[in-house]
Write a structure and sequence with these properties.
There is one protein chain. With about 140 residues, the chain is α+β, with helices and mostly antiparallel strands. It has two domains: about 1-55; about 60-135. It is built from three helices and four strands, in the order ααββαββ. The chain has helices spanning about 5-55, 60-70, 95-110; strands at about 80-85, 85-95, 115-120, 125-135. It has a four-stranded antiparallel β-sheet with strand order 1-2-4-3. The longest helix is centred in the N-terminal third of the chain and has 50 residues, at about 5-55. The chain is rod-shaped. The termini are far apart.
């Protein structure tokens, strides 16, 4: 019978321990990368939630648009507000260009998600407009 040399067993144990340390260090670096990725994902998720609260609030959108329409500078424009299932539509058949400029400056300065808009020139000083704002 042949005997196993104790030096072979010691060398084998040292190789196994070194392999374990190598694997442990690679797993630690992978874990740190995953933690950084998780923190970045968490940050993006909180930003998306904030944007959803800002742009997805139906009551805030409708109340803000009603305030814009009722502004004294836009009373003469005769803007109609119609609600749809997932959006609001502002429409005016004839509005002066100054009023149109005021309307769009207020809409673009606010936090509104414009789905589509159409402007048709009627003459040199009047235009018809349709704006659809979604939430």
């Amino acid at each position: 019978m042949s005997r196993v040399n104790p030096l072979h067993i010691i060398v084998l144990l040292i190789v196994v321990v070194l392999f374990g340390f190598f694997k442990l260090s690679t797993i630690k670096s992978e874990l740190q990368e995953e933690q950084k990725s998780y923190q970045a994902s968490q940050k993006v998720a909180t930003e998306l939630l904030a944007y959803k609260k800002l742009y997805g609030d139906k009551k805030r959108v409708i109340n803000g648009l009603r305030k814009i329409i009722k502004a004294p500078s836009l009373k003469a424009a005769n803007i109609q507000l119609s609600r749809k299932s997932k959006s609001v539509e502002l429409r005016s058949d004839s509005m002066e260009l100054r009023e149109l400029n005021r309307l769009f400056s207020k809409i673009l300065n606010g936090a509104y998600k414009i789905k589509r808009f159409t402007i048709k020139s009627l003459d040199a000083t009047h235009a018809s407009v349709m704006v659809e704002i979604a939430w």
